[in-house]
Structures are given as C-alpha cells and as structure tokens.
C-alpha cells in the first residue's frame, strides 16, 4: 500500500514539551503566549524538581487549563533526559506532532505556526537562527561566536547540511520519534539537539529549517555551562569519526 503524502497525514494533535528548572517567573507568561498563538495545542511542562517552585506554579496553571499538563521529575538530569521523558509521555498518547520549546522566552511561540506549517513537506522542522531571515536578539558577541562555531564544528564533523543543528525550537512528526532509538540517547545537555537531528537525517527523514528570531532570556540564568560545551565537543567528534569509519568501510566493501 502506498504511503499517504506527509501533508495528508496531518500534524494534529500537537504537544509542546517545555522542560523547566528554576523558571518560576517565565513559565506562566510563555504558556499564555503559546496558547494564545495556537489555542488547540497542548503543553507538557517537564520540571526537574525546581527548588524555586516552578513545578507548583505549573500545577496551578494545569488546574485552570486542561490543555496544560505537568510531569514532575525528582532530579536535574539534563535537558536530553527531560525531553526524552516528554517524548515518551506524548507517544503514549495520540499526539501526531511533538514540539521542543524553551521556557525562558527565547523561542517565540508566535513563530510556532510557521514551524508547524513546514511539516507539510517534512518530518522534522527546525526553527533556525542561521538560514536567511533568521536572527538573534540581545546576545553578547561571545554567545553568538560560541553558537556559530558549535554549528560549524557539527556540520564539518558530521557532514550534515543542517545550519542550526543546535537549535532547540523544533517540531517532530510522531513517526520520527517512534523510529529513533530513544533509549540510546546518552547526551544530556544541549548536545542532545545535535544528536537527535543527526539521527533523524541519517534515518532518511526530511529535515527543513524555518527562520526564527531567537531572543536572549530577560529573566533567570542560562543553563549553558563549561561541562555542556565539553560534552558537545567530545561526543560530536566521536560521532564524526564513527561516521567517517563507516563510510570508509562501505567504500572498501564496494572496492
């Protein structure tokens, strides 16, 4: 039986997964903007035991709005683990599309309709800072340079054409997450984004990038750290070596 075109499969219902750690002042406004921009989506707040009471705020929001759900985790186990837990929650239900979005306001919910619309002809849609029309606002030079170098390094090491492979604002069709080996995802920090996008492309799924404006958070502290950067450098390098070795073995067998 021939497969239906992607557009015919539809993207609804949509679940937006929002990991949180100490985002008490941000979670309410960002969910309000999200549900105003897209009234039919659902949001899952995945809170890693925030000591500032973010989880309690999310619970109150969920009581007042059936579109909001909350998952409480007992420890700060990293961005990757939080997203995988959120993905599993969504896959255990009937959501056709699962979205990643930060809680700090850096990802504008108003851009999400365009990110979702791009799934008409794709399996993964990435809100990108580095395609024509994409931009960053209020980022210091050091952060811009680090982000640009991280994406350049990943493209060269992995041989991918994705320009913003570190981006954390993205929408997956359910079929992608069902096929990817989520149990094997070991990356915990922002390297998780590289890992998942790379695996998606290698699995033969169509990846598109949609220009967005990324705005630096106004409240709270960034979760970026030296350990997160080191994890990305080491893992991406290892993945790149592994891919090159597999390519060489494939050429040797053909020869």
Describe the structure.
There is one protein chain. With 255 residues, this protein is of the alpha/beta class. The protein has one domain: Spore Coat Polysaccharide Biosynthesis Protein SpsA, Chain A (Alpha-Beta Complex). Helix content is 44%, strand content 16%. The chain is built from nine helices and nine strands. Strand 2, helix 3 (54-64) and strand 3 (68-72) form a beta-alpha-beta unit. Helix 2 (24-37) runs parallel beside helix 3 (54-64) and helix 6 (141-158) packs parallel to helix 9. The longest helix has 29 residues, at 226-254.
CATH topology: Spore Coat Polysaccharide Biosynthesis Protein SpsA, Chain A
CATH H-tier superfamily: Spore Coat Polysaccharide Biosynthesis Protein SpsA, Chain A
Highest-level CATH class: Alpha Beta
Mean pLDDT: 87
Specify the CATH architecture. Answer: Alpha-Beta Complex
Distance between the termini: 36 Å
User: What is the number of domains?
Assistant: 1
Shape: globular
Structural class, by secondary structure, is alpha/beta
Unreliable sequence segments: 1-5
| Content of β-strand | 15-25%
SSE topology string: HEHEHEHEHEEHEHHEEH
Radius of gyration: 18 Å
Alpha plus pi helix count: 9
Quaternary class: single chain
């Amino acid at each position: 039986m021939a497969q239906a075109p992607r557009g015919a499969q539809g993207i609804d219902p949509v679940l937006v997964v929002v990991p949180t750690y100490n985002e008490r002042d941000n979670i309410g406004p960002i969910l309000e903007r999200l549900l105003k921009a897209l009234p039919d989506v659902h949001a899952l707040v995945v809170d890693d035991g925030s000591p500032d009471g973010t989880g309690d705020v999310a619970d109150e929001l969920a009581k007042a709005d059936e579109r909001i759900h909350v998952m409480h985790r007992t420890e700060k186990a990293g961005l990757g683990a939080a997203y995988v837990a959120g993905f599993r929650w969504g896959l255990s239900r009937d959501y056709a599309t699962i979205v990643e979005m930060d809680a700090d306001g850096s990802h504008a919910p108003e851009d999400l309709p365009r990110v979702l619309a791009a799934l008409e002809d794709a399996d993964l849609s990435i809100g990108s800072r580095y395609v024509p029309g994409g931009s960053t606002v209020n980022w210091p030079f050091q952060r811009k340079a680090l982000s640009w170098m991280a994406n350049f390094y990943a493209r060269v090491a992995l041989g991918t054409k994705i320009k913003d492979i570190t981006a954390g604002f993205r929408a997956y069709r359910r079929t992608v997450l069902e096929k990817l080996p989520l149990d094997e995802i070991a990356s915990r920090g922002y390297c998780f984004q590289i890992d998942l996008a790379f695996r998606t492309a290698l699995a033969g799924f169509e990846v598109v990038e949609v220009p967005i404006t990324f705005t630096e958070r106004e409240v709270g502290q960034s979760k970026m750290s030296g350990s997160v950067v080191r994890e990305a450098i080491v893992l991406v390098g290892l993945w790149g070596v592994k891919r090159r070795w597999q390519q060489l073995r494939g050429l040797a067998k053909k020869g």
